Recover the amino acids of this structure.
């Protein structure tokens, strides 16, 4: 998919990005970080948003320089390495890293659909069959939405996002009005205290990760060189505001000790609202699963789109079967790549017990992807100065190398702290195996070309 002057409008893309980010993480992972750091998890999510904003600025410069779909593969491939083999490896390892996040994230969200429904409908929680069928049904739904043209998908997706933001606004108002600031004391608490504030950042970063999707379908955006920076920055800032308001409302309604003792880390919003809205007002709690279903749908839709475009780009470069790089002539959508992602997600959803491993391994791969993109931007600047890369984007990140370097430093710190957190060792082993598989695929591909 190449650059074009007609395509998705900036407004549509902003809503798509916000809808993709305001997804499963705030309804589930916010409870995990709350258990780690107490109310100070507000700082965790704010810092994660700042890091992703820095990262988003890096992406914006790369996207305006190379306005093509499949950006996570495209940027390292175009910039890093001096030989074709080195360029292919750089692009592939970045794509493989992000595929972990997008595919695991889609699967995680699909599992969370049945988890949320199960917390309100005993028939779901008591039925193993429904717990398997519901994630599959939601994966099929998001496949169907994405199988349409980009414009048709964008219109449907944004209507769902508007409905989601309306319901969340009601939740925020109820939390602020009925909550108590005393529930947020002490501000720094939880199982890890101050350390948990920083250790939770990679987990919270997953909540903003869908911003990469803007780069993945950059070639489908109207006037991408001009619009991508505005879309990315506006979407990230808007999502940070929404997240902080949701967390503030949630923490006002329930102390962290009660949340943890009830083992409600994976449905904190429902638990929090249920603790203050009782009696004749208890029915209002039903807005949480409604919002969760809307959010999970928008989140899954964007992640599965992201994964399909990444696979499309790698297939078009010869890494994967050529069929996966084909574009449907009428829909202008990579149907084969999209279907492959959906099938993988369905298979993975059959093992819901691996949910904590999915979260932590995805956190590691997300952080590594951010690091790769930061290195890519610094290398791009160097090669532009020497004339090795003639292309220049319409947007440049201010401060020279400052933002990419700050991003790298923070990523290294958070990765170290994540290792010492609960399940950190297992997560690193899973992530290591994932990257090992990626390297093996690369070696097989190169051997086949000889």
């Amino acid at each position: 998919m190449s650059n074009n002057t007609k395509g998705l409008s900036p407004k549509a893309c902003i809503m798509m990005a916000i809808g993709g980010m305001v997804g499963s993480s705030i309804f589930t992972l916010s409870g995990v970080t709350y258990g780690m750091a107490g109310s100070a998890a507000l700082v965790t999510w704010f810092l994660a948003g700042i890091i992703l904003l820095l990262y988003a600025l890096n992406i914006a410069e790369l996207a305006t320089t190379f306005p093509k779909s499949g950006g996570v593969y495209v940027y390292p491939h175009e910039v890093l390495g001096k030989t074709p083999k080195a360029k292919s490896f750089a692009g592939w390892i970045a794509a493989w890293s992000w595929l972990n996040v997008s595919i695991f994230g889609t699967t995680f969200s699909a599992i969370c659909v049945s988890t949320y429904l199960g917390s309100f409908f005993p028939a779901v929680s008591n039925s193993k069959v429904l717990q398997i069928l519901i994630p599959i049904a939601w994966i099929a739904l998001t496949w169907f939405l994405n199988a349409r043209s980009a414009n048709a998908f964008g219109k449907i997706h944004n209507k769902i996002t508007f409905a989601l933001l309306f319901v969340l606004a009601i939740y925020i108002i109820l939390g602020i009005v009925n909550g108590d600031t005393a529930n947020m004391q002490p501000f720094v608490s939880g199982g890890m205290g101050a350390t948990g504030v920083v250790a939770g950042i990679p987990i919270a970063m997953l909540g903003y990760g869908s911003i990469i999707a803007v780069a993945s379908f950059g070639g489908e955006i109207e006037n991408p060189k001009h619009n991508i920076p505005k879309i990315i920055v506006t979407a990230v800032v808007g999502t940070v505001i929404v997240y902080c308001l949701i967390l503030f409302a949630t923490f006002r309604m329930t102390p962290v000790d009660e949340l943890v003792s009830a083992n409600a880390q994976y449905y904190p919003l429902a638990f929090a609202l249920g603790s203050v809205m009782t009696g004749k007002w208890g029915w209002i709690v039903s807005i949480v699963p409604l919002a969760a279903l809307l959010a999970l749908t928008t989140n899954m839709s964007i992640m599965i789109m992201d994964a399909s475009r990444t696979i499309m780009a790698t297939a078009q470069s010869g890494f994967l079967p050529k069929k996966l790089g084909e574009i449907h002539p009428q829909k202008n959508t990579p149907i084969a790549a999209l279907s492959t992602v959906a099938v993988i997600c369905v298979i993975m959803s059959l093992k819901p017990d691996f949910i904590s491993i999915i979260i932590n391994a995805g956190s590691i791969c997300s952080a590594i992807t951010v690091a790769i993109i930061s290195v890519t931007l610094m290398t791009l600047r160097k090669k532009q100065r020497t004339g090795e890369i003639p292309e220049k984007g319409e947007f440049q990140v201010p401060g020279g190398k400052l933002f990419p370097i700050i991003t790298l430093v923070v990523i290294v710190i958070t990765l170290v702290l994540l290792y010492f957190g609960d399940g950190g060792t297992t997560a690193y082993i899973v992530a290591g195996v994932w990257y090992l598989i990626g390297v093996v695929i690369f070696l097989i591909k190169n051997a086949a070309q000889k």
